[in-house]
Amino acid sequence: MSDVTAISLHNLIQRKRASIYDKKLTFFENNFSHQSIPSNVLQGEEWYSSAWTLLLTDDVIVTAIKGNTFKSPVSLNLSGAVAITDAALLSIANVSGKLKLINLKNASRISERGFLTLISCSRVIECLNVSGCTGIAGSGMAALGKYSPSLNELDISRCSQLTPWTFTTIFKGCRNLRSLDCSYCYLLTDNELRVLGDSCNQLESISLKECREISDMGITYITYGCKALRSINLSRSALTAKISDISLLSLSENCRDLVSVCVSGCDSITDIGLAWLTSGCKKLQVININNCNKVTNKGIRCIGEGKST
Description:
Elements: H1 3-31, E1 32-33, H2 58-66, E2 75-77, H3 86-92, E3 101-103, H4 112-121, E4 127-129, H5 138-142, H6 144-147, E5 153-155, H7 164-173, E6 179-181, H8 190-199, E7 205-207, H9 216-225, E8 231-233, H10 245-254, E9 260-262, H11 271-280, E10 286-288, H12 297-305
Parallel strand pairs: 2-3, 3-4, 4-5, 5-6, 6-7, 7-8, 8-9, 9-10
Antiparallel strand pairs: 1-2
Helix pairs in contact: 1-2, 2-3, 3-4, 7-8, 8-9, 9-10, 10-11, 11-12
């Protein structure tokens, strides 16, 4: 290869790298917004979803912040940004005073240090998704109870590192929760749900999918305190007998506005429980009873008729 060819190739690579960097910078700027974003992120939908998220790095974010582009952003989306670390969050924290919506889903390299700094500087957070952020220790997550009293939507699913003390601290401090996803939080127990029921009376939606330590007792605690509940997911593939007709009875007696119930895999559910549920919850639109092996055609008819047998 001649020297001229080598220089040309070098220049081409440098221009290509600059182009990619600019695109990553632009993508970050588009996801760190001054405009409100619909809070569908906690329902499994990503806003501004793009493969560029995977390429975001600390230096892109730090550069954007230093460029003084952001004065008072209200939403941040770093979902899937697997390369970012605490360095990025420490930089973002400097301009995060008005952040209301933060999505850090699967940003697995973030630790307690960066997360704690971010939320302590962002006292008006309303919606937070930290699903899959397994690098954030329990004490970091627990700080939400201190710094985020305005939080109304929280997704901590797949955070299997969280302990009962962490859940208790969050539930006691975040009393305005309306939507909560604790799916695959294996250490969550009935005792913490008692705190949730006592503290978060405005709760409308909860997912306890694969929370295998939860039993009928925990669901009873929720129903006594969270009477505005509209959606609940209790599906599981382990310790399936812990959720039975007793849970459905408690829901029917206390949560009359229920629209959606999922008890997939709960093989202690029977026709009797479905009769109780449908007799008390007249607004039901979705009932998932997949793999509820004790349910017969009689129970199915209860669902169709919406009344007791």
